[in-house]
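In response to a reviewer's request, we include the raw inputs and outputs for one of the modeled complexes. The two entities were modeled together in a single run.
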Amino acid sequence: MSWIQDIVNPKARAWEEFYRNRHQADKVVRSTHGVNCTGGCSWNVHVKDGIVGWELQATDYPALEPSLPPYEPRGCQRGISFSWYLYSPLRIKYPYLRGVLTDLWRAAKALHGDPVAAWTALVEDPVKRKSYQQARGKGGFRRSNWEEVEEIIAASTIYTIKKFGADRLVGFSPIPAMSMLSFAGGSRYMQLLGGANLSFYDWYCDLPNASPEVWGEQTDVAESADWYNSKYIAVVGSNINMTRTPDAHFLGEARHNGTKVTVLSPDFNMTAKHADWWIPAHAGQDGAFWMAVNHVILSEYHHRLQTPYFLEYLKRFTDCPFLIQLTEHDGSYRAGRLVAATAVERYCKEENAGFKYLVWDETSDQPRMPLGTLGFRWQDKKGEWNLQQKDGQDGSEIAPVLSLLTCREAELPVVFDDFGAGQLVQRCVPVHYLVTPQGRIPATTVYDLLMAQFGVDRGLEGAYPSNYDEDMVYTPAWQEKFTGIARDNVVQFAREWAATAETTEGKCSIIIGAGVNHWYHSNLIYRAGIVALMLCGCVGRNGGGLNHYVGQEKLAPVAPWATIMGALDWSKPPRFQNAPSYHYVHSDQWRYERTSDEARVQPVAEHNGITAGHTIDHQIRAVRNGWLPFYPQFDRNPIEVVKQAEIAGAASNQEIVVWVVKELAAGRMKFAVEDPDAPENWPRLWIIWRGNALMSSGKGHEYFLKHYLGTHTNTVAPETAEESVRDVKWHRQAPEGKLDLVVDINFRMDTSALYSDIVLPTATWYEKDDLNSTDMHSFIHPLQAAVPPCWESRSDWDIFKGLAKRFSELAAIHLPEPVRDIVAVPLQHDTPAEMAQPEIKDWCKGECEPIPGKTMPRLVVVERDYKNLYNRFISLGPGARDGIGAHGLTWKIDDIYDEMAEGDRTVEWQGRKYPSLVDAREAAEIILRLAPETNGEMAFRAFAAEEKKVGLPLTDLAADTRGIRTTFADLDRQPRRLLNSPIWTGLTGNGRAYSAYCLNVERLVPWRTLTGRQHFYLDHQGYITAGEHLPTYKPKPDPSSLQDLVVTPTDQKSIMLNYLTPHGKWGIHSTYGDNQRMLTLSRGCHPFWINDQDAAQIDVIDNDWVEIYNDHGVVVTRAVVSARLPRGISFLYHAPERTIGIPKSPLRNARRAGGHNSLNRIRLKPNLMLGGYGQFTYGWNYWGPTGANRDTFILVRKLEGEPQW
Amino acid sequence: MNIRAQVSSVFHLDKCIGCHTCSIACKNLWTDRKGVEYMWWNNVETKPGTGYPTQWENQEKYRGGWEKKGDRLQLRLGGRGGLLGNIFHNPRLPTMDDYYEPFTYRYGELTSAPAGNDQPTARPVSMISGRPMKIEAGPNWDDDLSGSGIYAANDPGVLQLSREQRAQMFAVERLVMLYLPRICNHCLNAACLAGCPSGAIYKRGEDGIVLINQDKCRGWRMCVSACPYKKTYYGWATGKSEKCVLCYPRLEVGEAPACFHSCVGRIRYLGVLLYDADRIEAAAMQDDKDLVAAQRQIILDPFDPQVLAAAGKAGIAEQVLEAAQRSPVYLFVKKWQIALPLHPEFRTLPMLFYVPPLLPVVSEEHLGTQRLVDDYFTTLENARLPLQYLAGLFTGGNTEEIKAVYRKLMAVRIQRRRITVGDLSESEVAKARELGEVSAEQIEAIFRMTALTSIRQRIVVPPMLREQAIEAGMDPERHKQEMGFGSRRSPKRRW
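The model returned the following structure tokens for the whole complex.
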């Protein structure tokens, strides 16, 4: 070993300075990445020579309970590659304008002088309009300057407002939590204009509809540290280790603490590698698995063992004891509506009696009316909306029974749906008869219906299976044909699950994600799993619950933020649009489907007026009935509507509304959604920021290109809707190029930027100040400028401030006086409108009167002061002074508003001072000051307000932290833990891990649902008709009904596969996936994953180029051939850019091939459009159909010849 | 006894999620320059797979590491004479194809493309030639079993298994993978150092970090061949070889190396090990199956008064000894014996150790459905991966060593389940402890170190006493006054 010498000699080691020099940085700044990944990781950005060099994670999160692993470090391979973008050739450094439009604009400007006149002349010339539309996406950008592009945008905005209406302006930016002020800048601007902001959570298919269905909550989940508290974790459709990279360690660490981890996934994925059990269930069949698990749990732990913890939990915290009316059809019965207090004499005179629901009381052997149901929430008398087991009339104790089995008056045969087999089964349930003004009605409990639905043999008559091996709906044997999992394993899983829950009082959890949520019937799959949680008392417990992580939906300081974001401090209501409906309608994707196919995709219990018809007609009904929003609202300019009303003699706002209702009822005025292809109803100006709306989230991308942009497209799909549409107006020729102007705000030249008319350079996440929060952890932390905005970029806030300024200047000429605008909004969740429509009635058909806010959308006349739009933008308006809030809860802030208006950060105009919103950091300070989550005094006030509603003590939850105030500078020093807040349902005191619904379970605060409890049973006329009132299984849509391959022929060289686009390892949506780091570590492309035997069938070997195609479009990429995937499915990990290394497609005219969204078309599930009642009322990003995209089929073949560029 | 201190590491593979954050942290800081683009001082491999550079474990091909020649150790490349003879032509060097040709894209053309009749795209181009290229390899080409039929099937470790074992591994329901993050092992018996004709490679006295002196390196690339882990790389722009420096500039200021700091799976542990340098050769001469035990033996107990006294005499500072006593690496490697070196049969005595991963139980096709075994947790008998494969990676083929580790890891889970849930009986726990030869207290310690530790407990950087190191060549006060003044200068090509 003589040659191995340790060297200490300093001379020989002087060269070591070489690497030391590299490592020395001048400055370290805390920031993060505003990207929709849920990570919310705090990063230290290292600056050297005024240039960002690299980033490393911050490791200084405040500690949680000592029994929990710490959060550090947070941040993944993608985030750590971000510094690549700042100085890369992909960076957008200057404003760009496409050459064709530049020339047209400059010529028009030279001719007309006035920008609005110039824009009018340009855009109303069909040849000119078409010429720049067809150039979209085809290169030819020219460097412009801020003055020019701001002027074009302002001119186009004014043109649109005057000619068509402000509701033809549309803005899209997703996921505010990742950089809330950057989002808020744009939405504030749009709302001051009166434009529509599109939702994202539902559009991205991140919204789990089961959450509003069951809990009346958009989403609330545990922070990842709480996984560690769980003793049994089922990971379902979520690839934690791949997509929740900074949190995955909690899962691994929990295992070493004795937790069992089971992973359900069709492929052997990164998380399955870490599991104790990998259950290779067939793709999209998780629901069948859980339904059978529930059968076992109910049979053994409920019926046979009567597990006390489970039964007590169900009685207090779920709708299980509530009575359901059975309705008779030809001698057998169907489960109907909740029995309301109106049914019995004792309670029928109570306030809101129709919305107070009954249980069967064990002590009195009578129907009783417990506290906490919907009617109590919205009654005049406050303090009775809680979960105490007390009678709502006299306050006496009640003891609800779960089942009428032992006290039944009779048993009646009830018909249940077996959608898997397409048949009905008849099973008896125990009933009591209630004496009502309408006569005797039979009623049973939700629990009894569940027992029957799941086929638990309790000795009642009917088609009950006698054992687990009997292949009858929901037995372990039954699920085998769907999941491919042996029945014994289902039984074993169910027993391990329930036994763990019993011993630990609910420490079983499901981690669930897009792998499930993107299926058409995802709401049912989710509910099947939630049933297993609720049956075992696992919701509202640390270590228990449904942990759905799809999208960074949790914007912690939501109340003050929403005020600024929606410009609610100046004008209410905002125009918030659900994007799935918007794109389905406006990008004309509805034209490509037919009712007969959709009916096969969505099997229903009963075909009738509620379920029948084309989806576009369902959409129209939803708008007319006030279930969903839709913009544009009417077939004419909303300003014009007001003017016409005035001409007709309407003076007051109320009279204007009355006139509008009259015109609508008479059919003289139409909703725009009834004729979306008419030019006056097109969206005209679209601003996109913080998102990749045309590609990464552009589901039905090729239809976007065709109908929105009017440029090239690779779709060959036939339009098939004409024969089956009824209410919508059909135009033989679909419009192409609806949008006058598309503006993209970006720091990188992504696909959306490439296809836009104007590209504005924005500051990166290391060049601006902003706030970030997530549901994965319970901290709030900042983005900060490590370096100033590079080149000519500006922060999003400043970009919109600049647009507002330019617009106001032009408005002073073109719209100098305040104008009145009428806004139509749907019936809103967390308002008394939850009691609007207990039954579905269509005023249009004369079934009821058209009453705004009751049977149709609410109509509100608002004033817009366009000349002062900029002033309003930079000032926190007087509307905020009246109070802020969320989820139906508000509290006072007038003293703080006044204090701020007197402070040193103010703006003054027209003789009045306002708290300043001039820059994003000031807005952030205001949010931190006003949010209960960051300011202890606000938390105290919010709990005090909640106490009044609930009638139980709650302010103690905020007493200890009342003195805490957080500033932006505090966040610079260290991420801060969120305080307890009634806006959320978890509790964080003393380092306790946040877990959803602990507030409800521990403090008896009701869920925001019909019964105030968690719902197994969905009492909505539409749900009953659709057969989704009880948890159920509906089969996956058959490829033959999906219209993916109507005109695309199959041949010997191709193979048909189910096309899945799960979230991948090398990108967050399309971000990072295009950078050199991630491309190097993957395969230099976004490859197509295919099973080895499937690949062999079409003669494809690993790394071969392949062409993937269907009617919608085509993708060309290289194949990854792997036995990791089962046969029959394929992966193209979400979301490639079609701008990076994409060859042309020989199959589609040698045009540039597309991206993952080129192969799909969205399909809306009609029962998710229902509304007007209980938790089914509308909330932006809370309710509505989602952009489901898993049920898609493609053909794949080897690319012929060498790739052509 | 000749005691030395080495900054050593443990990677807990059960916690590794294969995310590659470590790789990018390193890339950003060290290898983002021209000529070193292809270098990944830290890389992560999916096993089974052929890794980076491809087939690096195949020493029939690359002839890295040491072999026993009679009673001596010799580099597989050959003796001193053989080395010099190959200086101008070394057939054992990995080629560009064995690594990959680094690539980027013509990103700028998306903005600059002239108006045309189709959408522009950014074509891939070589970072070497700048010309458009086909991408056919990368540093992580077989990630997550990509191309499993080609890469996983040709893993040198897999090729040593029986036909039956291989067939089992690749049936879909038995598919398996694990992640293997790799950096320089900073070996005690470093083959790169031994192979360097220029004497440019040395092991730092204070911390055992193996470095290539950038002033002295002449780019002969013998280190590239000699290192069986292929963790030195030739920089084509400077004509010098470079390798992982264990982020000594960070260690010197008390920070974790970038890949350790950024490890989001929290799998990486770092701390000082004391070892007896006099026994290196003897340890490296053991039979394959005894190498793990032999290496463990030369690692010394930092609480032993004799060791401490000898260490003091050898000039190891008291503060460093205190750090050695807090070293998590000592616990994993020596005390609990659940961390193992990678390919000990290469005989370099690598000072990076791995806790092998627990893997899910298998399932079997039965009457058209998947049937899982009824084990509650992972068990040895039903592990998806043959023990022989793991033994091939970590114990020179000794499956008993692997089994011993697994039994301990399982005992931890069983005891913790008993404590936190209580649905397992005390006799079951006792049986697990007995089988794992581990005490209840040790289990608690292993559990805490695995699950609950903060970065300061996982990564115990010894004080580097820089003022004393600098003092050996210059007055630290003068260093303070002058540091940073001067021009930046990279090492020059030496021919």
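As requested, we also summarize the result in words. The mean pLDDT of chain B is 94. The domain at 282-458 of chain B is CATH 3.30.70 (Alpha-Beta Plaits).
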